Amino acid sequence: MRTSTLIRSSFSSARRGGARHVISAAVACSVVLAATAACAGPGGHSSHVGAPGVNIPSVSHSPAPKKAPPLPGVGSVMSKRVPAQAQQAVVVYGDGRDSDEGTVVLYQKQNNAWKIKGSWPAHNGRAGWTTAHRLDDDRSPVGVFSLTDAGGSLEDPGSHLRYWYDDNAFTSMIDEDVDEDTAHQFDYVIAIDYNRLKGVPPFDWTRPQGVEKGGGIWLHLDHGDGTSACVTVPESGMKTLLHTLDPRLHPVVVMGDRARLKA
């Protein structure tokens, strides 16, 4: 079931650390990324006590469920961070540690295997990737993060994630003298749950780990070059993600340069 929220606000704060502009951020505390529980296998155990001299039947066990193979190009280090209940994954394959280019692939688990649902060229932080993201370092954080909230300056195109439509809050974060592509970068966005509260609009500037850890990192429309930390894909990609990602399937984004993803 889709949940869409219409907001018309006088929000005028500028962003810091997530797109191409600087924000006046407010500091608050909460959680960054909700911890997820692994699913235990349904192992059955039965025992029988016999009389003296009577053989005791052997213990029987139900077969453990098959573990899904890792996401393509994702090694053991990152795979361990993907929640067991995640049935959808957006993998951002950065071309290099210091590159702002890469590929975004949407996977969905079917019959205990990851199937590709879409793939698009992408951009990330203009300085590349980091495992210790800081405000204004122009690098995207390497990691696994949940995807729970979406929004944009255009009305909900059919998102399964909760969608906040606000034609003022998103456009107010864009500089006035920008080209046409950049002016539409926030038509559709999906918040990456890095240093943010879940269940609030993407433009909420609460930073649970503090302002210096950055935040406001989104998937949004591509504008042709690197970002401050966000990941961008073409409009067709954003619409597919919004139409496909389903909170009941616990979607996550797995992101980083290819070398560190494979570790």
Overview of this protein structure:
Helix content is 9%, strand content 26%. It is built from 4 helices and 12 strands; from the N terminus they run βαβββββββαβββαβα. It starts with a strand and ends with a helix. By secondary structure, the protein is mainly beta. About 20% of the residues have low confidence. The protein is globular.
Structural class: mainly beta
Instruction: Please tell me what the overall shape is.
Output: globular
Helix content: under 10%
Contiguous helical run count: 4
Q: Report the order of strands and helices.
A: EHEEEEEEEHEEEHEH
Mean pLDDT: 82
What profile does the largest beta sheet have?
Answer: 10 strands, mixed
The rounded distance between the terminal residues' Cα atoms is 37 Å
Radius of gyration: 21 Å
Strand content: 25-35%
Q: Please count the beta strands (DSSP E, at least 2 residues each).
A: 12
Q: Unreliable stretches, pLDDT < 50, 5 or more residues?
A: 8-60
Structure summary:
The protein is mainly β and 263 residues long.
List the helices and strands and how they pair.
Layout: E1 4-6, H1 76-79, E2 88-94, E3 101-110, E4 113-123, E5 128-130, E6 139-141, E7 143-152, E8 162-165, H2 180-183, E9 189-192, E10 218-221, E11 231-233, H3 235-244, E12 252-257, H4 258-262
Parallel strand pairs: 1-8, 2-12, 5-6, 7-8, 10-11
Antiparallel strand pairs: 2-3, 3-4, 7-9, 7-12, 9-10
